[in-house]
């Protein structure tokens, strides 16, 4: 026990089991790629059904959000995400799940203080700093680029 | 605190206290594990007839305690005090779960060490002559704990390999100061000291708790003059794969080789690889369920005679870790003989 905190932490980190990085990357690549291919297929389908060039991608996003919300609701999404990792996290599916899952979780605390107050506990930082980054970029664009 | 011999450490009970009755309740993941079929009450869906996970955990406590009473052939008025705890904020699972019993109640929070924390207090209470019988109850619920400590239940993320899986389950133990035949009993206890070795990774609790477990064990061996090999089993609560390796290493460095007799409840409760439970099980329910469904029955059948049982806890909250605090650990030990 005569080991300093720093050395102990170093020892622990050196001996801790590591995430299987390559396996995770391959699975994320395959699943993320599959989701994007599926989405591209949807976009083509919507276009063939008469959606305009700008509308088709939007309907595609909405479709992906709906499918994710449904799969999250019936308790399947987290099992897929466990395998897919960043593959489901990076596309819009990850964002949809991060909003739906706290909403489900906090339903028991009521619609206002439960769902309403806690729906963005996971996605909140992304929304806040995403908007902030957008605003900063907007200023840079307005001042230097336009 | 000083014991009767004026030493700071092991408290030898004036008279041993007996496990008059005990019961375990568990959920689906535990039922699918190596101890499946040994629990008194099981709900594969972890719901226990309740609408929220928090209520389900309270129900688990109620079921465990009432089953232990029934198995002991006792009524609630035969118990003079109950010491109980869980992982929820303000210990609500214990508060609500045991509220229907007409028994003086002490709510405890020792994180995952609550099983032995409650056993220590209940045994001192009984042995000291303050009560005939006292009960120790502890529980955890995977979904209630996930919500409170980690992320929403349906959130799609990958867990770190060092992370542990909170056990859904409870154990209730009724301790009796009247001598009983053929029943395991507690002879002495060693309350843990808080040990903080600077771990701040919430996904590696085993590493945070292992130094505290080692501190308690080393103090026990030094003071009692006994050696690991003289026990049939030395059981730790929920160090998991990471913490178990570290504990054995620290013990080895201090001249105590425990590998041959050491078991960890977190590694026993699940088929860690087959059930994909990463570094193993954790939670107040982990050690309580293993004690009640595996250790005590084996002691009662004569397979084990002399056991050191130590539940371990990580004494942090999500806020304390987010604010940059490190995670203190603790290990409370009871010596059980049959």
Structural write-up:
The complex is a heterodimer of chains A (146) and B (338). In chain A, 78% of the residues lie in helices and 0% in strands. The longest helix of chain A has 28 residues, at 21-48. Chain A is mainly α and 146 residues long. Chain A has helices at residues 5-15, 21-48, 55-73, 77-84, 86-89, 92-105, 111-118, 124-145. In chain A, helix 6 runs antiparallel to helix 7 (111-118). With 338 residues, chain B is of the alpha/beta class. In chain B, strands 1, 2, 3, 4, 5, 7, 8, 9, 10, 12 and 13 form an 11-stranded mixed β-sheet that branches. Chain A binds chain B through residues 1, 3, 5-6, 8-9, 11-12, 15-19, 24, 72-73, 75, 77-78, 80-82, 84-85, 88-89, 94, 97-98, 100-102, 104-105, 108, 121-122, and chain B through 51-52, 54, 147, 151-162, 196-199, 204, 207, 211, 214-215, 218, 241-242, 245-246, 250, 254, 279, 326.
Summary, kept brief:
The complex is a heterodimer of chains A (146) and B (338). Helices cover 78% and strands 0% of the residues of chain A. By secondary structure, chain A is mainly alpha-helical.
């Amino acid at each position: 026990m005569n080991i300093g905190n720093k050395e102990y932490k170093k020892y622990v980190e050196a001996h801790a089991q590591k995430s299987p990085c390559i396996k995770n990357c391959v699975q994320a690549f395959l699943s993320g790629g599959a989701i994007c291919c599926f989405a591209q297929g949807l976009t083509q389908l919507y276009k063939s059904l008469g959606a305009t060039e700008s509308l088709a991608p939007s309907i595609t996003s909405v479709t992906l959000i709906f499918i994710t919300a449904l799969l999250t609701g019936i308790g399947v999404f987290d099992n897929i995400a466990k395998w897919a990792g960043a593959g489901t996290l990076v596309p819009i599916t990850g964002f949809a799940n991060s909003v739906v899952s706290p909403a489900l979780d906090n339903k028991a605390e009521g619609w206002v203080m439960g769902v309403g107050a806690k729906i963005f506990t996971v996605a909140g930082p992304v929304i806040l700093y995403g908007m902030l980054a957008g605003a900063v970029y907007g200023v840079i664009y307005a001042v230097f680029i336009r | 605190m000083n014991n009767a011999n004026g030493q700071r450490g092991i408290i030898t009970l004036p008279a041993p206290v007996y496990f008059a009755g005990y019961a375990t309740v568990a959920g689906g993941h535990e039922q699918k594990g190596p101890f499946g079929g040994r629990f008194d009450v099981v709900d594969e869906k972890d719901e226990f007839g309740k609408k929220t996970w928090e209520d389900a955990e309270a129900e688990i406590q109620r079921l465990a305690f009432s089953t232990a009473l029934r198995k002991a052939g006792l009524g609630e008025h035969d118990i003079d005090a109950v010491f109980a705890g869980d992982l929820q904020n303000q210990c609500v699972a214990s508060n609500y779960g045991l509220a229907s019993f007409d028994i003086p109640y002490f709510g405890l929070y020792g994180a995952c060490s609550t099983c032995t924390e409650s056993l220590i207090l209940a045994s001192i209470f009984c042995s000291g002559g303050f009560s005939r019988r006292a009960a120790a109850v502890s529980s955890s619920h995977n979904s209630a704990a996930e919500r409170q400590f980690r992320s929403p239940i349906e959130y799609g993320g990958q867990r770190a390999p060092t992370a542990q899986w909170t056990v859904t389950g409870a154990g209730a133990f009724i301790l009796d100061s009247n001598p009983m035949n053929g029943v395991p009993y507690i002879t002495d206890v060693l309350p843990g000291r808080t040990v903080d070795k600077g771990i701040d990774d919430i996904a590696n609790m085993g590493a945070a708790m292992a130094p505290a477990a080692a501190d308690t064990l080393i103090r026990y061996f030094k003071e009692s003059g006994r050696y690991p090999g003289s026990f049939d089993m030395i059981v730790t609560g929920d160090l998991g794969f990471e913490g178990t390796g570290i504990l054995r290493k620290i013990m080895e460095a201090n001249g105590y080789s425990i590998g041959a007799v050491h078991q960890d409840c977190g590694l026993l409760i699940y088929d860690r690889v087959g059930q994909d439970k990463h570094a193993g099980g954790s939670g107040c329910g982990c050690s309580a369920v293993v004690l009640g469904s595996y250790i005590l029955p084996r002691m009662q059948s004569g397979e084990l005679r002399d056991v050191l049982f130590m539940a371990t806890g990580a004494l942090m909250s999500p806020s304390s870790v987010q604010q940059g605090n490190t995670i203190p650990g603790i290990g409370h030990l009871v010596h059980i003989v049959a």
